[in-house]
Amino acid sequence: MNFEPMFLKPKDDNDRLNNLELAYTLKTAEAIRTGKLRTVATMDAICKVALVDPTYAYGHKNPSKKDLKRYKDFQKKVNDFAKDFKRLQKESENEVEEKKDLLKATREQLFKLAIEKNDLINKYQKLLKQNKSLESEALETQLTNTASSSRVNDNTINVICPDETLTYNDQYNFYNNELREKAWNEARTKFQKLMKRKIAQRVFLLVGIPCSGKSTWIEKRELISDRHAVIIDATNLTKGDRAEWIMLARKCADIKIRAVLFLTDFSTIKSRNSQRRNQGKYIDVSILEAKEKNLQPIDVRFEDFDEIEIIRED
What tens digit of pLDDT does each residue of 255-281 get? Predict the structure, then answer.
């Protein structure tokens, strides 16, 4: 479902900030997709889409102290995105140059070999093609048999769970930022490989704070058996979080994307969290409260889901 975003002219600072947040989500997603920052996800570009005069965004119109802080936080978020974008772009350019140098050296070596033993190179090229084909078959088999895979009516189920990597030496490292970054990078890489398969797939994008019942749902759920299933077991609280997975999933040739929203009473969540102390997975209640506040409702007008499922628990 693709929708053209419609912005209403804001009447007050709260409207302006809401417009800016939504425009930020859309424009940063566009920047990631196109590889362009300037004119796409700058403060001026975001303000233009949000129908907000930049002087408001920079806090020059005497907002309240609360709104001024929100404006400043928003400025920092835009600036941080620009810094990260430029850093990743620079790293990508360096990788391209290194690959060019490697390609040049490889071509020179191949040319020398061609002069000396042309027949041997022809045989090598044939073996290389066979090897690539075998590697592709091996990768397909690995993806089918790993990542918590099981079968439902001959269709595979793969679970992408960054949390699994946070357990190291039998210790749950929720607060280790370096390990969390590694876990998310590995999860994205695994998901991208799955989306390259030329088969009909359905992505189940789970949405809910910790202890809301996501992992239990995975264990007990009878999934629709018409497609191979890929389950993303993460909180996915914001529209931006979900947009990243959706963009990667849309690269699949035959895909359906289902949002599974978990609405669980907070008292139940705290109770489940207390039971996790013995497992070493207890999370501070203040963090759970912050995540509950950060949970953004699914917006069917702008988020590209084919299906939505809601799980309610008292």
Answer: 999 999 999 999 999 999 898 887 778
